[in-house]
Amino acid sequence: MYDILTNIFGNQIVAYIIGAALPLFVWILPFVLFAVLGERKVSAHMQDRLGPMRVGYHGILQTVADLLKLLQKEDIVTPAADRKLFNLAPYIVFLGSYAAFAAIPFSSIYIGSGIEVGIFYILAVSSFVVVGILMGGWASDNKYSLLGAMRSAAQIVSYEIPTAIVVLTLVMLTGTLNLNTISQQQTAYFWNWNILGGAAGSGITQILLIPFMVIAFVILFISTLAEVNRTPFDIPEAESELVAGFHTEYSGMKFAMFFLSEYANMFAVSAIVVTLFFGGYQSPFGYLGNSLGIPWLIPVEQLFWFLAKGVFFVFVQMWLRWTLPRLRVDQLMTVCWKYLIPYAVFNLLIVGIISLL
Amino acid sequence: MNLYDIIFYLFAAITIISGFAVVSSKNIVHAAFNLLFTFFGVTGIYVLLGADFIAVVQVIVYIGGILILLLFGVMLTNKITSVDIKSGTLHVIPAVLGVGIFAGVLISLMYTTNWKTSVLSDPGNTTIYNLGKLLITDYVLIFELLGILLLVALIGAASIARREKD
């Protein structure tokens, strides 16, 4: 991919910078614009309302109008705030969520960096988000912000453990940390996806693996939901207790940065779930490009399938948000430490035994 | 001076400047947040050296673990954030002696060690396969002992945090 870009732009450095910025401008910004609208529409229809209807056809330009409004807003820094850290925090949070996109394979020809430590790298860079949230919460000099930041950091750090154990299960099964290789292994049809036992197992082992892969998927989905602070795990920004959590004091574009990174994070964790369990960019039914004999169509189809699966899981996250009530802090920690972690460890052991068969 | 040299000096500068800010900062929370950039600079240098696994471990352990633990400790401790910590000069002669001896040891080690400076046969290759193989063949005893050590620490933490039954 970088070779093509180097040929077009003539300079390696320029090509790499453009290659790195592609997901942001081509996918994340449009995605966030429509995901915010999607969230409002999903919530509205679940509550028997219509949601935004006035800007454009059925309100499709609502978020564009909101963005224009946010751009014009005054940028307020409260006098007691720690100016330097306060201004830096939104960028650190966004850095953490955008860095994850570097190792996510969007298509067989587009992956930011095909590093061998892919999924491990994604788990690692999410800690920048925690540092950014703590920075913003502390620098605001507001008790709600600080409490929200503390809750958020404690929650993300706790739920990283079940996530890591499930990822370990998958790594044990597939024998690689590289997300591109994991996607390639699940090629051809949907019965080769890891949720249905993966392509590595044969016959009886594959059937034995299915229930345990489903358990692994559920654990991973719940813990990634907690890592992006979504309902039912949204106590860091519980409106009824903490105003808006760690970004209470932010306004204008800095608030928009937090919003952008929240939605980018939602897509990033969906992309991880899709890549690990649902075949990544692989099509479930084979490729149109193969049957028509047009090779260049295949990567385009892969991109379509990847984005479609990712958006589906973002939709599931929204659906859950407007269905389930919020957990209490103690319930949140009980779910993580007393249920998810032991189940994930036993699941890891059982999958290990089965894959030895 | 090629591109990699420039990137190396950039990361080295980030590490050293933020490291200096850590020790000279009057505010303990600022010192903790400056550590983020120090760790980040070191990670960048690891990546440039081709140690991909070590770089990611650096991020996950130091930024994801130690730095966050440190921030929690600093923020949850009452009245520590508003206290000005002393960062002036005290005991010049012992400090110079200590730092001088430490620097001398480091520099002599740097010159006497037989560094493997030859270029790897396949620079694009990753280190994780070889590291994994070494961990379960040559260093398996140390690996298992470290595992037991961490398990003991985990059980100790759980038993300290446990609520005593009446």
Overall description:
- The complex is a heterodimer of chains A (357) and B (166).
- With 357 residues, chain A is mainly alpha-helical.
- Chain A is built from 13 helices and no strands.
- Chain A folds into two domains: 1-72, no CATH class; 82-356, no CATH class.
- In chain A, helix 4 (83-99) packs antiparallel against helix 5 and helix 8 packs antiparallel against helix 10.
- The radius of gyration of chain A is 21 Å and the shape is globular.
- The model of chain A has no long low-confidence stretch (mean pLDDT 82).
- Chain B folds into three domains: 1-86, NADH-ubiquinone/plastoquinone oxidoreductase chain 6, subunit NuoJ (Four Helix Bundle (Hemerythrin (Met), subunit A)); 91-124; 126-166.
- Chain B is built from six helices and no strands.
- Classes of the chains: A mainly alpha (357), B mainly alpha (166).
- At the A-B interface, helix 5 and helix 6 of A face helix 2 and helix 3 of B.
Instruction: Give the radius of gyration of chain A.
Output: 21 Å
What integer is the average pLDDT of chain B? 82
Strand content of chain A: under 5%
What sequence of helices (H) and strands (E) makes up the elements of chain B? HHHHHH
CATH class of the largest domain in chain B: Mainly Alpha
CATH-level-4 superfamily name of the largest domain in chain B: NADH-ubiquinone/plastoquinone oxidoreductase chain 6, subunit NuoJ
* Count of discrete structural domains of chain B: 3
The CA-CA distance between the termini of chain A, in Å, is: 39 Å
User: Strand tally of chain B, please?
Assistant: 0
Instruction: Specify the overall morphology of chain A.
Output: globular
Structural class of chain A: mainly alpha
Shape of chain B: globular
Q: What is the CA-atom radius of gyration of chain B, in angstroms?
A: 21 Å
Task: Classify the secondary structure makeup of chain B into a structural class.
Answer: mainly alpha
